[in-house]
Amino acid sequence: MHIDDRFQRVTEQLGDFVIEIPSWGFANTGTRFGKYLQAGAAGTLEEKFADAAQVHALTGATPTLALHVLWDLPAGVADAHRVEHLVGQFGVRAGSINPNLFQDQEYKFGSICNPDGAIRRKAIDHLLDSVEIAKALGSRDVSLWVSDGSNYPGAQSIRNRIEWLEGSLRLTHDALGEGQRLLIEYKPFEPAFYHTDIADWGMAAQFARFAGPQAFVLVDTGHHYQSQNIEQIVAWLLHLRLLGGFHFNDRRYADDDLTIGSIDPYQVFRIFHEILSEKNRAAIRDVAYMIDQSHNIKTKLEAMVQTVVSAQELFAKASLVDREQLASFQADAKTVEAEECLREAFWTDVRPLLRDWRERRGLPQDPLKALRESGYLEKIERERKARNASLSTSYA
Amino acid sequence: MHIDDRFQRVTEQLGDFVIEIPSWGFANTGTRFGKYLQAGAAGTLEEKFADAAQVHALTGATPTLALHVLWDLPAGVADAHRVEHLVGQFGVRAGSINPNLFQDQEYKFGSICNPDGAIRRKAIDHLLDSVEIAKALGSRDVSLWVSDGSNYPGAQSIRNRIEWLEGSLRLTHDALGEGQRLLIEYKPFEPAFYHTDIADWGMAAQFARFAGPQAFVLVDTGHHYQSQNIEQIVAWLLHLRLLGGFHFNDRRYADDDLTIGSIDPYQVFRIFHEILSEKNRAAIRDVAYMIDQSHNIKTKLEAMVQTVVSAQELFAKASLVDREQLASFQADAKTVEAEECLREAFWTDVRPLLRDWRERRGLPQDPLKALRESGYLEKIERERKARNASLSTSYA
Amino acid sequence: MHIDDRFQRVTEQLGDFVIEIPSWGFANTGTRFGKYLQAGAAGTLEEKFADAAQVHALTGATPTLALHVLWDLPAGVADAHRVEHLVGQFGVRAGSINPNLFQDQEYKFGSICNPDGAIRRKAIDHLLDSVEIAKALGSRDVSLWVSDGSNYPGAQSIRNRIEWLEGSLRLTHDALGEGQRLLIEYKPFEPAFYHTDIADWGMAAQFARFAGPQAFVLVDTGHHYQSQNIEQIVAWLLHLRLLGGFHFNDRRYADDDLTIGSIDPYQVFRIFHEILSEKNRAAIRDVAYMIDQSHNIKTKLEAMVQTVVSAQELFAKASLVDREQLASFQADAKTVEAEECLREAFWTDVRPLLRDWRERRGLPQDPLKALRESGYLEKIERERKARNASLSTSYA
Amino acid sequence: MHIDDRFQRVTEQLGDFVIEIPSWGFANTGTRFGKYLQAGAAGTLEEKFADAAQVHALTGATPTLALHVLWDLPAGVADAHRVEHLVGQFGVRAGSINPNLFQDQEYKFGSICNPDGAIRRKAIDHLLDSVEIAKALGSRDVSLWVSDGSNYPGAQSIRNRIEWLEGSLRLTHDALGEGQRLLIEYKPFEPAFYHTDIADWGMAAQFARFAGPQAFVLVDTGHHYQSQNIEQIVAWLLHLRLLGGFHFNDRRYADDDLTIGSIDPYQVFRIFHEILSEKNRAAIRDVAYMIDQSHNIKTKLEAMVQTVVSAQELFAKASLVDREQLASFQADAKTVEAEECLREAFWTDVRPLLRDWRERRGLPQDPLKALRESGYLEKIERERKARNASLSTSYA
After folding, report:
1. Mean pLDDT confidence for A269-279
2. pLDDT exceeding 70 applies to what percent of chain C?
3. For a designed S-S bond to B143, which of A63, B169, B183, D389 qualifies (C-beta 3.0 to 4.6 A apart)?
4. Whole-angstrom Cα distance, residue A361 to residue D89?
5. D367 to chain C, minimum CA–CA distance in Å?
6. For range C337-346, the mean pLDDT
7. Are residues B260 and B270 in contact, defined by beta-carbon separation less than 8 angstroms?
8. What's the whole-number mean pLDDT along residues C331-356?
């Protein structure tokens, strides 16, 4: 395939590459050792919408904002009209709806896996409320991370909890409206340190199958064992028609929630390559590309814009791969040729192409520079400073 | 449950705890850097049967010998009568049949996943031959490790290879006789270093489901990512009715093939505990407990006897757990109490009980000591020394 | 060595096995996702001393309490008299003094490694204050964890920061009084996720050497890479005469701060074995055995008593090893014999011996049971409940 | 710094970037499961020199060939004249001299760490012979990998072995001639699976210090724990003036010996960046850049040429970094700016620059293409085919 044709394809595919950003990405977060509070961090839902709108204005790529039920809609469905008002005001739509199954003190020994049936019921009700919120807001996806697990061998019955999970997920699934989806996330550890009830993609896939046809798997790129091959998992989920979407971030050790591609950019490229290799285009139309990052060090807005730009660059590189040529080398087991075919795209500098693409769409060529020159950062720091300085956070 | 009743239960369950040992466990093996040749290593199938018979005579727990098609039956089904003769001679039965999909030079880019259809066909034929061998020998299990994978990103199509695997496994499954099983093993890496086609339990489970009702998953305890919770995987496979059996060994880093429980005995105990917690006893009747260890340093026979004794001790400890009490603590989320209930069994010294159990069965109380005093080690070293010294092995 | 002599040795060595517990182990802590607040958690220094005294009364093994400068002596040296009063009141002495280099907002980009010289100076002053506190309280050890690091490649100059650290540590060292020690801890990651300035034992040892003869290395058992051999590091630090002490806890994945020996008891046993193998008894007289655990799930007091009992059991097992016999097997490269010699001690049930040892010292045979029956847990929950319930904690 | 000046700097620094390739990189190697024999693999020292000369002719960057004593000079010093003849014939010089401490059957329980003094002495003699060979060939470096270790807890005395190692290394060091160096390699595991006597950089650095001023540390990029920060180790070794050189290769899991930068190119770039950030240019003049890769799948010659080209590209990218600008951002703790400054160089496509650089030196612009068109591959396959086909290799 000629390089000009490939550049043309990149331009087209970039237009469809829509990224969802999370409301909690604008709030003050940290590690268990504390939070480094940012003067400009968002503290209200309105501020989160305002920040998201700023990112979308600069990148043109983030039309939706993921919402966290407990933090953004504490009153549940009753808060939906407030969200709708902000959607109208800021021009950013409500994205996936994220229930919270870890913050309540009653969830100490689990939420929908808790051995106490009353607590399980309470957690299920929260899931059903989340589905209702999603319906009210026209959100397609309920994005579910079950943090349940245990810290010590013997502490809990792993077997019983599988069954409790199956029941809860099916109930939630059955409450979904037409066109809605339940995305099931997996994570090997943290906050639980001996066993986590949905620990890997294999468990998530089994649960999705059990829950029903509208349930899919959500891949958080930071939720894997050291050295696990994430693009292979993506290939499997595509094969099984179970790939619901991504929570993108990067990591070196655990679930470090760093900027996408900041530690291992080649891996993100390979994930995009695996998706773009799917022959059935319809199969990947609904894949949700979401960011899940918590920046303790980088300024929130800068980090978010940098994230979107990085994601676009790595996606563009993957889009450049000459897949016909690659398939031919693979068929002939020409290892070096196939590898170099893939790398040829990775090493191509796509930044000029992206600047051009942005310019033609009336966007700033360099969104990060534009953010810094916009005065927006100074404005929000001025406005939010006093409130943010008063927060307290301590390890012990 | 009273401690005497628990001791009684241990005695009963130990009687059913049958361990299969591998023919290749008696042969000279090593690392890629070379083999430290043992004077007494077995070089012929007859020697392997003789050694296995010795282990069984000392422990009373290893009535079957796993066979490797390429090394033990190089002529395929035609060699079956030779095996039957040895079975008759040594009183040890043929156990699981292990095909070999990695030794042939044509498998450089894969066997049943090779992009070349002719090579895939050849590999499938080897699998079908293995099924026939199993039928001829009355072996229940064909135990399949597919070492296929690739070393570099882009080198192979992960997606295509999933489909080739599905086809091959179904063909193999459909050739099985009544009562036979196909056990599908997974392994994250080695000998392939970028992607392995059956890399984790999730993939193995999907393949088993696809292949058919006589396909199950084989758990090699050394084939996991660092920090992965193996007993949770066992719980899942029990839940899915897909647990076919185990290849036991221990490891600290990679697939180190060390003696069971030599690095992390608590983990082996927890695996047995998970199995013994299964309420449907029929569901675990067919779980195959097999050893897969390659000893480069320890004397082969000593290592095998030590392995059997260690496995019995850890199994006995797991059998001691007061499961009624434990379930009650788990239901009440009494973390410390539940943990201590489990550990109470782990810390109990079961060695006197095992000595007693052996004595009542006419077995030596200390099988390792009995082996050393038997003269068998000296005998085989004398007989096999010259042959073994002539082997050569080099890294480059 | 005869088993009776070995039991005698255990009894003697147990008497010298003194464990320091941390004041923060009684306070409410959690993960970045929140804290499960405990009604009986200590909120004041007086409560921490009271709880520590309770643990010591039950076990007779924890005469000192590690103090955290920022949380326990917020006014610095000026708070020393308050501590002395509590020491007098509760009969538990002040243990190691722990500076805090992570909680202040100015430490966002590092404390004694911060590129801003003024912030480095402030951090050094805190270290010097900590030394003064230690002097005022008669504490031998200043126990230093430097959490500094960076989250992204390029963000900081690794080289510059090595030099800044060297300078700061030497200044701190030179302020020590006679007989005082500076213990330097290492940790691979968290809260920094790209590089941590003191990431492994090799760096800590180099810093200790540079700082001066009163600087030593502190081994936190949870601060290692997956599969790293901790007992080998202990052997090295003994060899280099740099082993200062331990922060004990267990983990499966990251720095999980679980109960000692709860995940891998065999490893703790091997660490004790390595220490007890030291031929120069004077060399290990000053090794500090400290607990560093943060219990989010287990009740604080129960966890601490369970920890002390577990540590004693594993220490007693290591003390039981027949080291003369073992050395002989090692010299002859008798692998199986040497391994079994070590395991013989590990599998011996030392609980009866410990119950006997406690009884003879006028301690409860089962300290955990005694704690539960003491009424102390109910008392502190009653007294502290209202205060603890009012705390708030949230991820975002 | 202006981009043109940076491009100028790249061109200069590339000229000094000399890469040593290993003789064993042209021979048939594999995994413990077998070797996929290559028709064109080198089987004699003459063939290895011929292949190395071909790589040098195509890249102009590999003037020396690392030699392995046991495989390349089996008669020891007596073989030196044979090597000198080949050097004269092929125009490639003898590079580092690599002793072998693992192949001899007597090294089963260790070489210079063996509890048997006679075996230790034999191993030391081999090291002293290697030093003599290096002198005879004018080789600067003796490059030492000690594979010693143990497979089971208790099997060996870790402490005793530290002392034996110290003695052996000092003896070897003291035999070095003026200007010669002893490079000490570390590796966490394989072929030993419980403990390896030189397991990490900290141990290697201590041994180098003990051995003497001509001893340095050798960093094999594949010999680290999962997630360890290699560039930080490089920074430390530069700081300590102990960085002797590299064995480059890439890996995902263990010591996989894949092509440099094939799995994580960003990490290789960061390592080069750390070296090029050294302000004292003299300090890095002697850093040895060596390749240590064993290709089982890729054609040996292709892999070697691809390796050299990849190394040059990643080195050129690192050379492009605007270090003045970066230092300024680091001093101001501008995280995003500093990171983007580093990435700007990484994402620059340096391939045109390298093609230009090669052309001006009379080298083929695309060495891999030139190799394929040269007819050399077909020639050696024709000549060596029959010999190579007769080799046998088997796991058990």
Report:
1. 97
2. 99
3. B183
4. 63
5. 31
6. 98
7. no
8. 97
Q: Which chains touch A (3 or more CB pairs under 8 A)?
A: B, C, D
Chain D residues closer than 8 Å to A354 by CB: none
Around Cβ A322, how many Cβ atoms within 10 Å?
18
* Side-chain half-sphere exposure of B268, counting CA atoms within 13 A: 29
pLDDT at B392 (0 to 100): 66
- What's the mean pLDDT when you consider all of chain C? 96
Asked if C313's CB is within 8 angstroms of B347's CB, the reply is yes
Is residue A249 classed as helix, strand or coil in its secondary structure?
coil
Q: C54-104: per-residue pLDDT in tens?
A: 999 999 999 999 999 999 999 999 999 999 999 999 999 999 999 999 999
Has domain B18-301 been given CATH number 1.10.10.10?
A: no
Asked if CATH classification 3.30.590.20 holds for the domain at D3-389, the reply, yes or no, is no
Return residues 11-50 of D near B (CB < 8 Å): 24, 27-34, 36-37
The pLDDT of residue D14 is: 94
Q: Note whether C347 and B351 are within 8 A (CB).
A: yes
Q: Cα separation of B216 and B244, whole Å?
A: 5
Name residue, tokens 């630090």: C237
Q: What is the 3-state secondary structure (H, E, C) of D201-264?
A: HHHHHHHHHHHCCCEEEEEECCCCCCCCCHHHHHHHHHHCCCEEEEEECECCCCCCCECCCCCC
Contact of D209 with chain C, judged by CB distance below 8 Å, is answered with no
How far is the C-alpha of A12 from the C-alpha of A8, rounded, in Å? 7
Domain parsing of chain B, residue ranges: 18-301
A48 pLDDT band, cuts 50/70/90, is: very high
Dihedrals phi, psi of A128, to nearest 5 degrees: -65, -40
Q: What percent of chain A has pLDDT over 90?
A: 93
The complex's ipTM? 0.97
- DSSP 8-state symbol, D365: S
Nearest chain A alpha carbon to B224: A225
Residue pair C86/C49 in contact by the 8 Å Cβ criterion:
yes
3-state DSSP call for residue C297?
coil
How many Cβ pairs closer than 8 A exist between chain A and B? 156
> Residues B361-382: pLDDT tens digits?
999 999 999 999 999 999 999 9
**Helices A3-16, A300-320: crossing angle, 10 deg rounding:** 140
Residue D226 contacts residue A227 (beta carbons within 8 Å): yes
Closest CA to D393 of B151, B103, B388: B103
Q: What is the 3-state secondary structure (H, E, C) of D6-47?
A: HHHHHHHHHHHCCEEEEHHHHCCCCECCECCCCCCCCCCHHH
Q: What is the pLDDT of residues A208-230, one digit of tens each?
A: 999 999 999 999 999 999 999 99
What residues in chain B have per-residue pLDDT under 70? Answer: 392-395
Buried b (16+ CB within 10 A) or exposed e, D116-147: eeebbebbbebbbbbbbbbbbbebbbbbbbbb
DSSP state letter for A109: G
Pairing of strands C19-22, A141-144: unpaired
Which has the closest alpha carbon to C239: C247, C229, C249, C231? C231
The answer to whether D122 and D106 have CB atoms below 8 angstroms apart is: yes
- A335 Cβ under 8 Å from any chain D Cβ: yes
Radius of gyration of chain D (CA): 21
Ramachandran region, residue B326 (left: φ > 0; alpha: ψ -120 to 50; beta: rest): alpha
Which of B319, B313, B315 is CA-nearest to residue B351?
A: B313
Query: What's the half-sphere exposure (Cβ side, CA atoms, 13 Å) at C278?
Result: 24
SS3 assignment, position C361: coil
- Residue A391: is its pLDDT beyond 80? no
For residue A181, give both structure tokens.
């989806």
